[in-house]
């Protein structure tokens, strides 16, 4: 069964699912602009994912995009982009459909917070339309230097580590084992200022992260595996997301 998404419009933005090579190429071009890569940002996962596109309805500009890979259960988690970097054998026992959210980006010339809200509304609609029970992906910090993110990592260690039953294992050759190394008490304000917006939203919904960050020099990022069990999202937060998605 092909993934579904009903059309979503909020304010000046509309979200739709990409259709065909032209839409995928537009998403790759926006990703290249946002991530600072030379040439289109593309990989082998683009052909097996659903691509969600957020347009400004006034100008037609593509202002945000992300992709989703639907998996029928934890037994398929090895097919995911994240499985290249993390040992995900613990998630193989997860019962229920999963979706990997990846390559999320917003046009660097656009700073309207409604874009992120509409994107999460679309994600919520996608999850509801396709009976998804877990959302996961890699949440990225810009650059590969850990120093400026120590409070953020200390906060992740203190409050947001994955349950042991789902905890990803180290697989990548270059990692920052922040949960084992950091002994500092986080400064909450500094931590939240340095936390990527996408990750911050995951955490507000009850998401959890790996106990280490992968140093990805190809993408010039540090990233943590991030998971969110849909059933664990606080009811008030679900109502808010569905009010955007409705």
Strands, helices and their partners?
Layout: E1 8-10, E2 13-17, H1 21-35, E3 50-56, E4 62-71, E5 86-87, E6 97-106, H2 113-129, E7 132-142, H3 150-159, E8 169-170, E9 175-176, H4 178-181, H5 188-194, H6 197-204, E10 208-209, E11 213-216, E12 221-229, H7 235-245
Parallel strand pairs: 6-7
Antiparallel strand pairs: 1-2, 2-3, 3-4, 4-6, 5-8, 7-12, 9-11, 10-12, 11-12
Helix pairs in contact: 2-7, 3-5
What's a quick, concise take on this entry?
By secondary structure, the chain is α+β, with helices and mostly antiparallel strands. It has helices at residues 21-35, 113-129, 150-159, 178-181, 188-194, 197-204, 235-245, and strands at 8-10, 13-17, 50-56, 62-71, 86-87, 97-106, 132-142, 169-170, 175-176, 208-209, 213-216, 221-229. The chain is built from seven helices and twelve strands.
């Amino acid at each position: 069964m092909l993934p579904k998404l009903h059309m979503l419009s909020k304010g000046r933005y509309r979200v739709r699912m990409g259709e065909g090579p032209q839409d995928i190429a537009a998403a790759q071009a926006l990703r290249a602009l946002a991530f600072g890569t030379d040439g289109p940002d593309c990989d082998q996962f683009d052909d097996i994912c659903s691509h969600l596109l957020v347009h400004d309805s006034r100008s037609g500009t593509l202002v945000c995009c992300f992709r989703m890979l639907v998996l029928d259960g934890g037994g398929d988690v090895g097919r995911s982009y994240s499985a290249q970097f993390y040992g995900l054998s613990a998630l193989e026992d997860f019962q229920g459909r999963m979706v990997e959210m990846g390559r999320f980006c917003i046009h660097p010339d656009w700073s309207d917070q409604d874009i992120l809200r509409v994107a999460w509304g679309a994600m919520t609609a996608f999850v509801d339309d396709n009976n998804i029970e877990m959302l996961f992906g890699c949440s990225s910090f810009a650059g590969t230097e850990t120093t400026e993110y120590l409070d953020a990592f200390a906060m992740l260690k203190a409050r947001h580590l994955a349950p042991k039953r789902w905890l990803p294992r180290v697989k990548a050759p270059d990692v920052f084992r922040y949960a084992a190394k950091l002994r500092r008490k986080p400064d909450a304000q500094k931590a939240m200022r340095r936390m990527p917006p996408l990750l911050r939203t995951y955490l507000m919904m009850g998401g959890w992260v790996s106990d280490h960050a992968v140093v990805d020099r190809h993408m010039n990022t540090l990233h943590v595996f991030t998971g969110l069990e849909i059933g664990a999202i606080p009811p008030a937060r679900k109502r808010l997301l569905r009010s955007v998605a409705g």
